[in-house]
Design goal:
The structure is a homodimer. Chain A is mainly alpha-helical. Helices cover 61% and strands 8% of the residues of chain A. The structure holds a DNA duplex.
Chain lengths: 160, 160
DNA sequence: GACAGATGCATAGCTGAGCTATGTATAGTA
DNA sequence: TACTATACATAGCTCAGCTATGCATCTGTC
């Protein structure tokens, strides 16, 4: 059995790329656990979309597609669904009759909050053994990841 | 614009569940970035499967399904595909004629390594601004996440 | 100010991952 | 031996996401 990287704590990694692929692997796993634990029916892309709106405020459908990292037709569908359940509102763009501003609606804010709760509650049991300092490490890491993926990320991949 | 959580660094989180949902959100995003940047054609579940085999060694198809967090029929498909490209081998179980041991083949090890490289290379540019200490924080966080998701996770969700 | 090309969103249709339900063969057990 | 449980395979469905394309509107050039 070859337990190289995936083993346990304080693995020493020589390369940044090694760290990043580990990160993606482990969080991929975490996401799967969360999905199964919550029996989530709404797609990840939908939550990404709501998160983006929550973070950056109303924006055009196309822009939203880029930020949420889906194609424009996919975003058209997502927005249509979100509109039906009234989690977002479509606001006509006064400057451009082709465009819409997509805004988070109160129900959407509520849904996003509840999702965060469900997710947190489902995963929290896995992390009960961690002490305060370890929680803090993860917290700082999440902050760093936010910084690194927020805006500049858009430019790295096939610049918009 | 309501930049509460997703904003920038050193967000203070009152709840563990808040941290965890942030973590899932941000890594979900990261995974999307990686997928688009590498133009990945192989499914995440396939990489999870190979990772599991790499970490824990050969195991039965059913066990592999649980560890990779997919249904057994899905794993049957994944294994069939992996077998065709010779990334794994099927070894008849001597004790049970119904069962197979699934083992990582040399080509699979190679493919996994290459995937890690691609992933790392694609994401590394996002992280160039981080200093050594910050990288270390992420590294420790990844280790912690490994610990918390490895084995016990299986029990949390609808105990196998 | 009219036409050409660019841009924003919608629609059509496809692919592929993952699921549930079920089938088939082998194990275990009374 | 027969009955149930278990391991994997098969069938068929659903849904997310994609590309290609259509339609409407905007922008720039002559």
């Amino acid at each position: 059995m070859n337990n190289e990287i995936t083993s346990t704590s304080t693995a020493t990694r020589s390369e940044l790329s090694e760290l990043l692929s580990d990160l993606v692997s482990v969080t991929n796993r975490l996401t799967r656990i969360a999905a199964q634990a919550t029996g989530e029916s709404t797609s990840p892309a939908t939550w990404r979309t709501l998160s983006v709106l929550s973070s950056f405020g109303p924006m055009r459908l196309g822009e939203l597609a880029k930020q949420s990292r889906v194609s424009q037709p996919t975003m058209t569908k997502i927005v249509a669904n979100l509109n039906e359940v009234e989690w977002i509102r479509r606001i006509a763009d006064v400057d451009d009759a082709r465009a819409w501003q997509i805004a988070l609606a109160p129900k959407g804010i509520k849904a996003l909050d509840e999702w965060r709760d469900r997710l947190g509650s489902a995963l929290a049991p896995l992390f009960t053994d961690l002490d305060h300092e370890e929680i803090d490490v993860i917290s700082r890491a999440v902050d760093l990841l936010h910084e690194c993926t927020d805006v500049r990320a858009a430019d790295v991949v096939k610049a918009a």
